[in-house]
């Protein structure tokens, strides 16, 4: 019986006091309260189902998560392979989802060892901001640390 199920649901949601109040009401009031509860419950279920359908129909954007890779610093020592370091730093920036040019420059400079960093800042003049792009850093570093 659907009315009995509705009364059980009401008692489960509102507690035994609601059940006692319903039992004390006239038969017409009981029918009215149970009908109002049924209407409320159907509306709530429809609302929740509508929200679920709306959420399911919206395509979810997959947000890639950055991966942090450690790159050994480029020191500028004899025998050090600059082209390998450039490949490693490029892969690390791509994995870290670093695409803004100024951030790529900062990451490259921060992965210079002391000798290479000193060289980069002194060769850029008195203003380190003169290093404007990643490709500029690669060109200048390649020229500055080219094997003899």
TrEMBL record:
On the tree of life, the source organism's domain of life is Eukaryota
Q: What is this protein called?
A: Gag protein
Q: Which organism is it from?
A: Phytophthora sojae (strain P6497)
């Amino acid at each position: 019986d659907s009315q009995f199920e509705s009364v059980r649901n009401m008692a489960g949601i509102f507690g035994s006091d609601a059940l006692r109040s319903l039992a004390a009401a006239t038969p017409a009031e009981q029918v009215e309260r149970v009908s109002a509860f049924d209407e409320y419950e159907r509306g709530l279920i429809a609302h929740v189902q509508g929200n679920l359908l709306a959420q399911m129909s919206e395509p979810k954007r997959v947000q890639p998560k950055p991966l942090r890779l450690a790159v050994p610093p480029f020191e500028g020592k004899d025998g050090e392979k600059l082209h390998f370091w450039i490949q490693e730093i490029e892969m690390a920036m791509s994995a870290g989802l670093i695409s803004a040019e100024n951030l790529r420059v900062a990451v490259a400079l921060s992965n210079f060892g002391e000798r290479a960093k000193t060289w980069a800042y002194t060769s850029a003049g008195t203003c380190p901001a003169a290093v404007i792009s990643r490709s500029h850093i690669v060109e200048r570093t390649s020229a500055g640390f080219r094997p003899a």
